[in-house]
């Protein structure tokens, strides 16, 4: 029934309905956040474990650099699998519903993460151990390929007018919160077991604890309502059988520019919360706890800035906020990573924290900006493809590229150059795209 045709209601009823709708949208946003946090917890646990122990456990070699490269290569492998997740879950999400895709992606991630915690090491199983590790990492990657797009769309498509960036940004706090949650498990485990005990087997604890989180996430997601896009008959949605093919054919420019817009932030984030945990102790002699504290504090600052950045994007537009973040990250990247040369926990923490706040200015608004670039029938696939490919190119390979760069240039400043160049690419791509704040979202 249209708004015009609705009968008049007694005083107070409309207010109650609005309160109920607001409560429902808030529950959906929180459900999206919880699921995304769990998925990124699983991913962060692997990234931290790769920096600390997985190289020697699964890739024995006489060279610590080779071990680190091998561990980070398996980190990158999961990003290579993300496009497959875009195809699989994008098709499910655009054809069958956002909720179904999200539940399925969480199940896949849970199975893969717990599986890593149960794997035998190279010493026990030989070559089978790294093969199984890579296989489970591929499954994690497939899951992540479907997670982000569904989480932000479920929140954004329920959002009231003028607050789309705000609600879509809530799942964007998932990556830093997932990293903080992983640190909250890993730091006590390291303290209790010690470095030797952690390497000997205690590293499995954070992976196995994922079982509890997955059960909670599935319970929460099973209780949310489907996106309003799927309230319409399937014939009205006219979703193509292969959404990705249609997306590439009809919107190639927006696809490429959307990828470019998100690529710089991905590099800044993964260099900060993954690569620095390995580079700081091994190359610069910084205590492991110092790097974990600095990265965790920075992640908390980024999470705290997520909602304010989104509110600003709802008021002034997506592009001004993203452009400000891109310029800030490009300028600050070299001082940020150069701060590691001091070895001082306070200086490193302050530099990383400012860097992730600037990163959040880029990261928070893209949750609304990327979906708004595409029509509803291709929105899950379009949003997922742009963000996931940017994450793969800018973030997935960042630790691997950084490790290679530091074999040639023995300075953390090279990390700033690398991240700064990618942020300038994001700046150029965001400038080439239109503002989308006032875009109608039901077509």
Automatic annotation (TrEMBL):
Compartments reported by the entry: Cell membrane
Transmembrane segments: 28-49, 69-89, 101-122, 177-195, 201-220, 255-278, 290-309, 321-340, 346-370, 382-401, 413-433
Membrane topology: Multi-pass membrane protein
Gene Ontology molecular function, alphabetical: transmembrane transporter activity
Domain of life where this protein originates: Bacteria
Main subcellular localisation: membrane
One GO cellular component, as annotated: plasma membrane
CDD domains noted in UniProt: MFS_ShiA_like
Keyword Transport attributed: yes
SUPFAM superfamilies cross-referenced by the UniProt entry: MFS general substrate transporter (SSF103473)
Segments of this protein annotated with the region Disordered: 1-20
Occurrences of domain Major facilitator superfamily (MFS) profile (ranges): 28-437
PANTHER family: SHIKIMATE TRANSPORTER
Name the record gives this protein: MHS family MFS transporter
